[in-house]
Design a protein that fits this description.
Number of helices: 5
Largest sheet: 7 strands, mixed
Low-confidence stretches: none
CATH superfamily: Vaccinia Virus protein VP39
Bound molecules: S-adenosylmethionine
CATH topology: Rossmann fold
Distance between the termini: 49 Å
Order of helices and strands: HEHEEHEHEHEE
Strand content: 25-35%
Structural class: alpha/beta
Number of strands: 7
CATH architecture: 3-Layer(aba) Sandwich
Length: about 170
């Protein structure tokens, strides 16, 4: 049996429901094999990407977003973005408290990144695992954005705790 990755269906759903328009300058953190990047390029967006393992194409940085010099490195693109997407995940340990801490660390890193690199009225979309009431910790997003929704995609596996935060209209 051929196993088809559902990665592509997730970005199709995100694009259809939450991005809609084309011609955006988009930064993807955790661009992996570039499936999302290729899809969003085909929809008329200008893509920039970061991944710590996979090599990318044009406008790509191979680095760890938790490195001390990451924000400095991101200046290399010399851009502010309409949309910042994080599809970064940890190797889920199964120890909920440990995985919870990873996504909190990611959340605080994203706050640091959007403060410098997200345009006014921009959009932040990021993946997280929804356990240990983690969304209670995301309350600052409601002050930073006009619209915040934590949602499970219909293209995600039914049993999975994988959620995406959709934050639109950055107030800056
Ligand atoms: C689920 S995959 C993303 C798949 C991607 N959406 C695509 O279109 O192929 C997550 C990616 O995040 C990357 N990643 C994980 N931790 C990272 C970190 N600290 N810094 C940069 N990239 C990271 C991994 O190398 C992996 O490629």
């Amino acid at each position: 049996m051929i196993k088809i990755s559902n990665t592509i269906y997730k970005i199709i759903e995100i694009n259809k429901k939450y991005i809609k328009k084309s011609n955006n300058t988009i930064l993807i953190l955790g661009s992996g094999k570039g499936i999302w990047e290729k899809y969003l390029t085909s929809k008329g967006n200008k893509m920039y990407s970061v991944d710590k393992i996979y090599n990318g194409r044009k406008n790509f940085l191979k680095t760890n977003i938790f490195s001390k010099i990451f924000v400095f490195e991101l200046n290399f693109f010399d851009k502010k973005f309409d949309i910042i997407i994080s599809d970064i995940c940890c190797n889920i340990s199964g120890i909920k408290e440990k995985d919870h801490c990873f996504f909190l660390k990611l959340y605080y890193k994203l706050l640091e990144i959007i403060n410098i690199f997200l345009k006014k009225k921009g959009t932040l979309i990021f993946k997280f695992m929804n356990f240990c009431n983690i969304t209670d910790r995301f309350h600052i997003l409601n002050e930073l954005f006009d619209y915040v929704k934590h949602t499970k995609l219909s293209s995600s596996k039914r049993k999975s705790s994988e959620f995406y935060s959709i934050c639109k209209n950055y107030k800056k």
